[in-house]
Amino acid sequence: MTDYIEPQTVHAVTTTAREERKIIFASSLGTVFEWYDFFLYGALAAVISKQFFAGVNDTTAFIFALMAFAAGFLVRPFGALVFGRLGDMIGRKYTFLVTIVLMGVSTFAVGLLPTYASIGIAAPVILIVLRMLQGLALGGEYGGAATYVAEHAPANKRGHHTGWIQSTATLGLLLSLLVVAACRYISGDQFETWGWRLPFLLSIVLLGISTWIRMSLHESPAFTKMKAEGKTSKAPIRESFGSWANLKIVLTALFSINAGQAVTFYTAQFYVMFFLTQMLKLDAAQANNLMIISVLIGAPFFVFFGWLSDRIGRKPILMTGLLLATLCYFPLFKALSQYANPQIAQASQQAPITVLADPATCTFQFDPVGKARFDSPCDKVKTLLVKAGVPYSSQAAEAGSPVVVTVGQTRLEGYDEPALRGAITAAGYPTKAEPAQVNQPMVVGIIVALILIATMTYGPLAAVMVELFPTRIRYTSMSLPYHIGNGWFGGFLPTVSFALVVYTGDIYYGLWYPILVTAVSLVVGLIALKETRHVDLDKA
């Protein structure tokens, strides 16, 4: 890192406590609105699968909707490169003004988009394009907001101040859930017809508010001073990734904290929602309300762990969160099944279901273009079980053997839909979770535990990322590993995990993906990540 700026005390002189609060509020509010826009799709994935991916079976439609959701994550690293470069060359403020306008307009357009029934294949194609524009915008937003706040913060409050930026993702999710709940109430039984559009259309109001607020902000003092001295980077991408010294830090940041943090966040905020509604068959409105309560309880801990990292260091908190995720996901999700839908848990213990079939007759049931036909008895059996939300295990039989399904002590040979449905019902498997039997306090407690793990890995993250890189290339250098971690490792979690569950029949099998990622990040972090709490940004 190059030593060319005066000591950190410059911030104490140029930024008053009132200005600090305004900077945190304005940056955080705009970022909340961006996350709101981005997360609406996730909150409405089940509805969107019906509106834009008609013509395929329900399971494939939902997986394809999740893939479209993931498309926004796929392009986030490219947004990080484009807007990170601009942020390091022309400034933080103007760059994240552009990102918020791009996000708001793209989200508003989703609310106006005709469905598959109206314009056919063009509908999902345009939807994916809009998702990718959202991803590009978010790729530039986070790095700008985190860098801007950190460069204004006193050295001993950097974790605390950037913790507010970290909380914005959860607050954006909370806002999206609240707005969706309100729109469900307003539109009633017409929600899936036209009411789902209202949350997207509302984004134009949020865009106006956040743009007006951000227009009043000033450029960060660290960037202003560097620009006045003529020391801004002329090629931030080349400096960030063309130098092994800096590239090594980028790779360490990606594999030690960003990948692991990403899967803890998306496990707690999204996968748990899919698990409740798709695997445990909770009513969508009830699951939405339980998530809202859990997020309200857990959100302040992003700021708390950011503050705590100013006292005891960033690394201990980050590593503890990764360790807890690796060790606790299986027991937490098994407990969630027990309390959210005890009938499924009880039935699967008393009458486990096994599908015994020739592997050559069973296919991986994923058909993004809707042309494949899953006509074998094995495929039909597994399709029925998945749609019913019934867990099962698969066993290989000899070649040419007919498919055999055992439901407890009942043995069924071949595909006999009425008999199979009757056996499932007789074994006590419910068609949906009974709202009265859901232990809501325990479900909330488990979701809060998942959120707390995420806050430990996410709360101190912005401070660490800002402290790892020099001012002249900070926006670019920190944005790329963050968005590869969150966009690729985290963003694809719901899609990959859900597809694994469908393939295996084991409702917990999808957890292997986040557990393996957090385990790798924990090992790499313990070995390669250094403590950054005392880094002086003005000497970076």
What would you note in describing this structure?
The protein is globular. The protein has helices at 10-14, 17-43, 45-52, 58-74, 76-90, 92-112, 116-119, 122-152, 158-187, 191-195, 197-215, 221-228, 236-241, 244-279, 284-298, 300-312, 314-340, 342-350, 377-387, 417-426, 440-458, 461-468, 474-490, 493-504, 512-528; strands at 353-357, 393-396, 404-407, 410-413. The chain contains 25 helices and 4 strands. The chain has a 4-stranded mixed sheet, covered by helices on one side. The protein has 2 domains: 15-341 and 434-539, Growth Hormone, Chain: A, CATH 1.20.1250; 344-426, Glutaredoxin. It is mainly α. Residues 1-14 have low confidence and may be disordered.
Considering the chains and any ligands shown, give keywords for the structure.
4 strands; Growth Hormone, Chain: A; 540 residues; 72% helix; disordered N terminus; single chain; Glutaredoxin; 2 domains
Summarize the topology.
Elements: H1 10-14, H2 17-43, H3 45-52, H4 58-74, H5 76-90, H6 92-112, H7 116-119, H8 122-152, H9 158-187, H10 191-195, H11 197-215, H12 221-228, H13 236-241, H14 244-279, H15 284-298, H16 300-312, H17 314-340, H18 342-350, E1 353-357, H19 377-387, E2 393-396, E3 404-407, E4 410-413, H20 417-426, H21 440-458, H22 461-468, H23 474-490, H24 493-504, H25 512-528
Parallel strand pairs: 1-2
Antiparallel strand pairs: 1-3, 3-4
Helix pairs in contact: 2-6, 2-8, 2-9, 2-11, 3-4, 4-8, 4-23, 4-24, 5-6, 5-8, 5-23, 6-8, 6-11, 8-9, 8-23, 9-15, 9-16, 9-22, 14-15, 14-17, 14-21, 14-23, 14-24, 14-25, 15-21, 16-17, 16-21, 17-18, 17-21, 17-25
